[in-house]
Amino acid sequence: MDLTAATPLERIVFETAEVAVGEWRCSGAHPAFHDTGPIQRHLVAFPRTGVRIRHAGSSAFVTDASMATVYNRGQRYTRGLVDPAGDCCEWWAVSDRLAAEIAAAVDRQSRPEPGRAFRFERAPVDAALYLHQRRLLRELRAARLDDVAAEEQVIALVAEVLVRGARAQGATPPVSASSASSPASHRELAEQAMALMAVSYREPPAASGRGPVETALPVSIGAGSQEPTYCRRLRLRSASTARAAAGRRR
Fold first, then answer.
1. Phi/psi of residue 224, each to 5°?
2. Cβ atoms 84, 28 nearer than 8 A
3. Torsion sign (Cα): 172, 176, 178, 137
4. What are the φ and ψ backbone dihedral angles of 17, each rounded to 5 degrees?
5. In what order do the strands lie in the sheet with 19-26?
6. Suppose 14 and one of 21, 120, 155, 246 were both cysteines; which one would form an S-S bond, judging by CB atoms 3.0 to 4.6 Å apart?
């Protein structure tokens, strides 16, 4: 019996209707290593091992922990062996709707084709971003985040990768979606996010005109942990207001 072929390649860590997070482990000895079929979701992947990736119709490139790979749902690609361990990574996926919203929010030049929201194949990753996604993965494995807070974090992470991909290709992301390097800038971005979320929780979505991507984007990597707590406070406030209103109607 070929135990390598029988071992599952993928494990889902977290999933909702809008986002998903998973672990991918494909040994170099796996019979399908070079081609495991088209990608099933819009996602970004953080490699743990060096792998040669070639998207259909594009040139091959070698990726490792210093580079995130970017895929559209249905993307066909092949891989080549670099590390004997094979292809090991964690991936972060968003729904079709969110993928289109993220692309439009982080890339002014984005003109998504049907089924191709992301126009970049890869993005540079520094130590801080890689460590952030590892910490977030640990939080998700331990179920320390509720679904709403987890979705916000995944959206922000995917957007951050796309921002970096856009910059690497010379594109200009909107200012509100770009990450900053100084603590003061991080605090300012977090404060903007909290103000926007307060509005979106006070008003119906149609009135505020802001979707989940725009709400999550200002909280760039390094903004700190206050945002999820703030979200919970807003949801509790909203729920209390709804209960009070229901009581008055009775």
1. 100, 180
2. yes
3. negative
4. -70, -20
5. 10-15, 19-26, 87-94, 42-47, 67-71, 122-124
6. 21
Give SS3 for 222: coil
Neighbouring-strand partners of residue 62: 52
Give the Cα-Cα-Cα angle 203, 209, 213 (nearest 5 degrees): 105
Domain 7-249 sits in CATH at 2.60.120.10
Mean pLDDT score across all residues of the chain: 77
Contacts with 37 (C-beta within 8 Å, 6 or more apart), sequence order: 76
Instruction: Please give the pLDDT value at position 153.
Output: 95
Question: Could you tell me what percent of the chain has a pLDDT over 90?
Answer: 55
Write down the domain spans for the chain: 7-249
Please, which pLDDT band fits residue 112 given cuts at 50, 70 and 90? Answer: low
- Going by C-alpha positions, the residue among 92, 68, 90, 80 that lies closest to residue 28 is 80
The pair of structure tokens assigned to 153 is: 């974090």
Which residue reads 């957007």 in tokens?
159
* Helices assigned H by DSSP within the chain: 3-6, 96-106, 127-141, 147-168, 183-202, 205-208, 212-216, 226-249
- How much is the pTM? 0.71
| CA–CA distance, 117 with 23 (Å, rounded to integer) | 23
- Nearest-5° Cα angle at 142, 138 to 147: 95
Distance CA 79, CA 148 (A): 34
Question: Which amino acid would we find at residue 198?
Answer: A
Res. 232: pLDDT tops 90: no
Q: Phi and psi (nearest 5°) for 21?
A: -135, 135
